[in-house]
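Render this sequence as a predicted structure.
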Amino acid sequence: MRAHSRELLLSLLLAAIVGAYLCGVGRYATLQSLKDHHILLEQIVAEHYVLSVLLYMLLYISTAIAVPAALILTVAAGLLFHMFPGVIYATISATAGGLVAFILSRYVIGSWLQTRYQERLKQLNQELDRNGHLYLITARLIPILPFFLVNYLCGLTRLSLWTFAWATAVGIFPASLVYTFAGTQIGSISSTGDLAAPRVLLSFLLLALLALLPVIWKKLRSRRQVLSSEDV
């Protein structure tokens, strides 16, 4: 990509981030805000369902670029649209927003980074070619890093767009199910801490370990083969 095009995309990205924070999106995307306004929101959805879905998805895609509000917006899907099809709307929106951030990251700096440090990144790229989808699913299941940050980091790698899309959708779906269901029970939730109950986190951790089992098995088998060859 030409330098001026990269600079233009970077400027647009920074403008979007600054605009989102200046508009206070993060301030309003809270559990308390949902609880305070849920009657009005439900009325709007009942009167303008299709438009509400479109606006919800647009908001989710926009915030996925820069604002850490994925959890609350997923809860909102359950509150506004019920668990089904709310979980579908949330999953599609999060994946689409992730794709936008992924593409921006790749074309603003990712392509340049891969060209500039091609040899240094060779081993990492080979590993991602083999197991990148499993690492991404694990990162989605155990959200140690914010959702939007993972999107940008993946854009710096050579992970394919298709792999990023389907692995993101698969990785976030279990959490989307949990949080959209929580949205249908919002009256019984007092804080976001209730959404991260130990048994829920343990379930995600076990799913993440299952996702990584093929990688762990390959590594162990490879190491065993190396040790066997050295003994010979």
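Summary. The chain is about 85% helix and 0% strand. The chain has one domain: 3-231.
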